[in-house]
Amino acid sequence: MRALELGLLESRADAIKGVHVDSRRVQPGDLFVALPGGEPYLESARAQGAAATLVPDDGHAALAALGHAVRARSDARVVAITGSVGKTSTKDILAALLRPLRRTVAAEAGFNNEIGLPLTLCRIEDDTEVVVTEMAMRGLGQIRDLARIAQPQLGVITAIAPVHLEQLGSLENIARAKAELLEELPAGAVAVLPEEAPELEPFVPAGLDVRRFAPPEAEVRGGRTHVRWRGRDVVFGFSGLHQAWNAGAALTALEALGFEAPREPVDVVFSRWRSQEVALPGGGLLLNDAWNANPVATRAALAHLLARADGRRTVAVLGDMAELGADGVRYHEEIGRVAADVDVVVGVGELARHYAPDEWVGTAAEAVELVRAVVRPGDAVLVKGSRSVGLEIVADALLGAGS
Known about the structure:
Protein-Tyrosine Phosphatase, Chain A, Udp-n-acetylmuramoylalanyl-d-glutamate--2,6- Diaminopimelate Ligase, Chain: A, domain 1, 18 strands, alpha/beta, UDP-N-acetylmuramoyl-L-alanine:D-glutamate ligase
């Protein structure tokens, strides 16, 4: 984006109510930024009341400049959350903890890249007190770039795990990439880190106030997860025991921000296609975790399925776990052994053959009809796979949206 264009937009910042890259979301007074392929939607955005439209030379640079400009005008404290697994759920939990306490802006869904992060920052208002951002990466240097846009004062790394191995090659490189967030924190800032993450330790800069978290004691009672924290229970509305790890990270961040854990139950709305539980006909249960998959998260999701089955027959619809590099087959075989206690395993995708599933198809579209035939009333069903597989259409079909 040319400097003149940015200057004009900054001069009108008080008049712009929001920033969107999807014309369907434009409200009167918003700015519509046409990313590549977005120019045909300029008239639609204007018809919906856009105060301004922008066709930048470099869409990502334009969004970065806008997000950084809005961030620079705000005194809000910015939290940045990254990690191989659990970052979106930790963001959702922390946001739920903060909203009763302070005026909070949190990233929508998985708004965690060079498009989503600036859009989150552009939602900051004059009275915003805390901003909870999420940062993802596909390679070295990307989290550093995002951190320079957001300028966080508190950084959270949820975990280091075998994700993006295809691009980065080793856990050491994954830790190095995640630690870019720590390098961009100001001196004396708080870094919330897992107690056990040996790959990360060489990359933790000196001069940070490091707060460690470990898996807290937790149990599920009456459909709620009771997390033992500082000598008392913090009660969360979710039933996934594996979320206790993310709750521990969020509670540590909450404490670092200067707030005590709540005494009232906390209702957490998880982002779409993540840990969503929906009733199915005949007393069945759908665990819709179709957003993404990796070995750590899939193992946890299978354990959650078995824990929530409560006598129901279990069905796991498992798609490929992508970007695992040369060890991809081995990781899929390991998950197949973990899934041995599930009554019916449906594999979707070429790598999913290595789960040794009871049923197999190549695509999510083929899986729709197969799963409709396999699932019986009263079953507990898990749907989980990497984003590239697109298993959300299977979950939608089970709920009737795809029929």
